[in-house]
Write a structure and sequence with these properties.
Layout (H helix, E strand, L loop, with lengths): L2 H7 L14 H12 L11 E5 L2 H13 L3 H4 L29 E8 L4 H18 L3 E5 L2 H5 L2 H10 L5 E10 L20
Antiparallel strand pairs: 1-2, 2-4, 3-4
Bound molecules: flavin mononucleotide.
């Protein structure tokens, strides 16, 4: 198999992080990979906020966690996400939706033209770049809800994010704690050849 494709296939969602910050040189490469993601009409509307402030990340992660309604619906019906790297869906005792990641990226985008697709491409570029550089990463949703709070509004103002931009998601970055998660088999029948 092609080396790059093999790398893509071995990417995982990482949810346990060492207490070790991402080196600036690696972070810079990851951000570049994000900036070079495609964007609809080459609008380049997205913005990435890099936060390495432990206190802010913890507060935001807890706020994000409190926005997660899935578990409260019917915990019995929720299928486990990962045995080795439990997600907030699997383990109700996890109160920080950012899992203590030392670097948290928040992706904002100007609403409108394929905005969410732009963010998804950007996040995946950076997720893969992190993996290529030996780092762990995980995408976290619910950013819009998290920022629709007093603290969220205060923070985006402090960060100087333009008012017409919407926070869509977060990408956690850091060094993985513990063994590599097992590969998650992909469901059969997802390719339909016409
Ligand atoms: C749009 C999106 C939202 C996600 N939100 C979360 C999240 O809030 N918390 C989390 O722990 N993982 C989140 N994930 C990671 C998925 O759970 C993970 O990608 C999935 O379990 C497959 O595992 P893999 O990435 O290791 O292949 C999200 C992934 C995507 C694409």
């Amino acid at each position: 198999m092609n080396e790059m494709i093999e790398k893509i296939i071995t990417r995982h969602a990482i949810r346990k992080f060492q207490d070790r910050q991402v080196e600036e040189s690696k972070l810079e490469q990851i951000l570049q990979a994000g900036l070079y993601a495609p964007s609809a009409g080459n609008n380049q509307y997205s913005r990435i906020v890099v936060c390495q402030d432990k206190e802010v990340n913890l507060r935001l992660g807890r706020l994000n966690r409190s926005m997660d309604m899935v578990q409260t619906a019917d915990p019995e019906k929720i299928r486990p996400v990962s045995a080795e790297q439990p997600s907030i869906r699997d383990d109700l005792s996890i109160k920080d939706a950012f899992y203590g990641a030392p670097t948290v990226l928040t992706i904002f985008v100007r609403d409108g033209y394929y905005a969410h697709e732009d963010v998804a491409f950007m996040a995946e570029n950076m997720w893969l770049a992190a993996h290529f550089l030996g780092l762990g990463a995980c995408y976290i949703g619910r950013a819009e809800k998290t920022f629709d709070t007093d603290y969220g509004r205060e923070l985006r103002q402090k960060w100087g994010v333009p008012e017409d931009m919407t926070p869509v998601g977060h990408l956690l970055l850091g060094y993985r704690e513990g063994p590599k998660p097992l590969d998650k088999p992909r469901k059969e029948g997802r390719i339909i050849r016409a």
